[in-house]
């Protein structure tokens, strides 16, 4: 996760290094698409905590800047609202027999890693609190001389014992705040459900088995119940890439509105995606190119051309959205960040336009961390919030509803959930709140991002 909630959720994003990795999966055809539920943790009961988390995420992101129809895997995305997190979690079943662990679904990083325990008698471990390698017959750490291990920049040669035949590959990941995850870089069998409800077992998923987890980003209250991270980035060791060749090099998800009660189920699907929607005149599927930042190849960049508020184009210099030769600038789509963050000069124009067009009374006081808050105690007033539109590359228009960029921070008060990225690096982040209610397809084969307001209700 690079920067998952810049200020809204205590999410870290590892300073992940990209490696090249051979495809670990058999190319045999499977029976269906893989589908995983997404669960969301809502941070907005504590806006200051959420903002703090997002801010940390942004700093880590900035650190990182320095054939035929295929089956689809499916898994629910689970809201973290109940534990004060703005993340979406995936329930990953790993090992033989399978052990279930909640991982943060993160398009801003590559590594899949889980919290592990080396216990022998593990009866004192609550279910799903850690992965227990001794209880899995398919667990196998890579040898330190294995080519996979050599791709880990945090596994220097001196950690490999030249005199031992069975010397495991060790990894160490350090985060911007000093948090660390270390252990064995390993391979395992994962069990995933397909769209039809049947199960598929996939062997040799590369992942980090973290036996030592320390620091605020990856342990304690800030981690909010997650037991690791499912990296969905563009790098070769991400979950989506490892499964990609078998499932069409694409994945999709729809993040459902966290404010609904009971919260609806969201899904992460590996393979399939928007092409599964029935093609009718009412189906509006838009595509915009995915760009590559050579200095930050993990991230999913899109081209923002302009922003309008109530149909008025804002006076933002187009060069502000470009990726320069130093890797600065550009706009990242990140499921690990809660709010949306714009380059400072762009944010100033958005804030100015919002202040001019909001017809609602100002809140008695600003919620800490937000620059614009309004009184919406009268429910009928909410439709009068200004409408924001993002004009993207290839003529696509991303039209989020007001609830995606105004959030209720307390009863009767809504605040603009767009913030500035400070520091002069110029990049922007489209967070998961802005993405809610859209089915997003990350098509790495065609290097494009598809989105539609239809399809979120599909099983």
UniProtKB/TrEMBL annotation:
Domain Peptidase A1: from-to ranges: 88-452
Record-level Gene Ontology MF annotations: aspartic-type endopeptidase activity
CDD domains listed in its UniProt record: pepsin_A_like_plant
Annotated Pfam families: TAXi_C (PF14541), TAXi_N (PF14543)
PROSITE patterns named in the record: PEPTIDASE_A1
Signal peptide location: 1-30
Keywords from the named record: Aspartyl protease, Glycoprotein, Hydrolase, Protease, Signal
InterPro entries the record matches: Aspartic_peptidase_A1, Pepsin-like_plant, PEPTIDASE_A1, Peptidase_aspartic_dom_sf, Plant_Aspart_Prot_A1, TAXi_C, TAXi_N
Residue stretches in coiled coil: none
GO biological process: proteolysis
Catalytic residues of the enzyme: 106, 334
The name this protein goes by in its record: Aspartyl protease family protein 2-like
Gene transcribed to yield this protein: LOC111435697
């Amino acid at each position: 996760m690079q920067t998952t909630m810049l200020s809204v959720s205590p999410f870290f994003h590892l300073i992940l290094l990209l490696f090249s990795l051979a495809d670990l999966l058999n190319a045999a055809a499977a029976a269906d698409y893989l589908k995983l539920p997404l669960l969301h943790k809502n941070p907005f009961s504590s806006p200051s905590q959420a903002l703090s988390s997002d801010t940390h995420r942004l700093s880590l992101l900035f650190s990182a800047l320095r054939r035929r129809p295929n089956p689809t895997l499916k898994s629910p995305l689970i809201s973290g609202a109940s534990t004060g997190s703005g993340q979406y979690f995936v329930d990953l079943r790993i090992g033989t027999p399978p052990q279930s662990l909640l991982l943060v679904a993160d398009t801003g990083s590559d590594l899949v890693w889980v919290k592990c325990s080396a216990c022998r008698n593990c009866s004192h471990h609550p279910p799903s609190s850690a992965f227990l390698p001794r209880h899995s017959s398919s667990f196998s750490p890579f040898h330190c001389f294995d080519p996979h291990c050599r791709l880990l920049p945090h596994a220097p040669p001196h950690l490999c014992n030249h005199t031992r035949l069975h010397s495991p590959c060790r990894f160490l990941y350090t985060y911007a705040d000093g948090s660390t995850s270390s252990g064995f870089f390993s391979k395992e069998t994962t069990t995933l459900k397909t769209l039809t409800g049947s199960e598929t077992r996939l062997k040799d998923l590369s992942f980090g088995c973290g036996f030592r987890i320390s620091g605020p980003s990856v342990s304690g209250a800030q981690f909010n119940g997650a037991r690791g991270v499912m990296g969905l980035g563009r790098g070769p060791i991400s979950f989506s890439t490892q499964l990609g060749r078998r499932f069409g090099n694409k994945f999709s998800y729809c993040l459902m509105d966290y404010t609904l009660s009971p919260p609806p189920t969201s899904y992460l699907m590996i393979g399939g995606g928007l092409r599964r929607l029935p093609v009718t005149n009412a189906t509006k599927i838009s595509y915009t190119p995915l760009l590559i930042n050579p200095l930050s190849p993990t991230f999913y960049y899109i081209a923002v051309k302009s922003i309008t508020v109530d149909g008025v184009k804002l006076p933002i210099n187009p060069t502000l959205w470009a990726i320069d030769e130093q890797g600065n600038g550009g706009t990242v789509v990140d499921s690990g960040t809660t709010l949306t963050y714009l380059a400072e000069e762009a944010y100033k124009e958005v804030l100015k336009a919002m202040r001019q067009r909001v017809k609602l009374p100002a809140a008695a006081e600003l919620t800490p961390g937000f620059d614009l808050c309004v009184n919406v105690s009268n429910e009928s007033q909410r439709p009068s919030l200004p409408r924001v539109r993002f004009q993207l590359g290839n003529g696509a228009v991303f039209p989020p509803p007001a609830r995606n960029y105004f959030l209720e921070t307390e009863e009767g008060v809504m605040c603009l959930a767009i913030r500035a990225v400070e520091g002069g690096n110029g990049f922007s982040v489209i967070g998961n709140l802005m993405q809610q209610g859209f089915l997003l397809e990350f098509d790495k084969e065609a290097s494009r991002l598809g989105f539609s307001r239809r399809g979120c209700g599909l099983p």
